[in-house]
Structures are given as C-alpha cells and as structure tokens.
Amino acid sequence: MTISSTPVTHLRVEIADTAAERARGLMGRTALGADEGMAFLFDSPTTAAFWMRDTRIPLSIAFWNASGRIVAILDMEPCLRDPCPTYAPRVPYVGAVEANQGFFEEHGVRVGDRVELG
Question: How do residues 27-62 score in pLDDT, each as one tens digit?
C-alpha cells in the first residue's frame, strides 16, 4: 500500500476483504512490524464502526473514500473485555487500514492524502 503523503509512505498490508477476515482483524496478535498493517476493503461505501475486542496492540486507523482520499484517522486502544468502545469516521468510506498507533502521524500522513493498493 502506498500513501501519497510528504514524503510518500509505504505500508505492507494483509488484506481483509471478506466478512470473516474483517471480523477477525488483528485480534489476538501481540506484535505488528513497524511498516506492517491490515487493510479492510468493502464492496460499497459503509459507515460501520471498528472495535478492538481481543486486540492487544494499540493501533491507528485511516479510512479512505471511493476517490482514494483519506477521510479520517483515529487512534484505537486495546480492549480485552466488554464493553469495548467503537471507532468510526462518521463519513462513508470504502477502505480502512490499521497500523501501529502513531504510524500515520510519524510519517506525516493526513486527511486528504491519497491511498493506493498495489
């Protein structure tokens, strides 16, 4: 995945494009490489919220729209027992990518930057 920020940012991602893969996400993982993440792809725009149930790594998530532009970036905290908070951008999106918390800020990634898979 490439994010057109200044400078351009590259992130190696696993793709979650089925309902089962999206539901599992990064649950149970204890580590994530510095330049690794998980991209969640949707067939049509959604406003669905993410949660961190059984996710042990603090994450940041960037949501992008059908034009490939980032519409929101949020930080998410691990949650090992209910109730867990939910995280949503409050605008429609077609994809989201999770990375270690702070990754997007550290790499200058901002709302409006372009996302390219490949």
Answer: 999 999 999 999 999 999 999 999 999 999 999 999
Tokens coding 110: 């901002």
Domain count for the chain, please give it: 1
- 64/45 Cα distance (integer angstroms): 10
Query: What's the rounded Cα separation, in Å, for the pair 93 and 50?
Result: 12
Contact 33, 44 (CB under 8 A): no
pLDDT at residue 37, as a whole number:
97
Secondary structure (3-state) at 105: helix
The domain in which residue 102 lies consists of 2-116
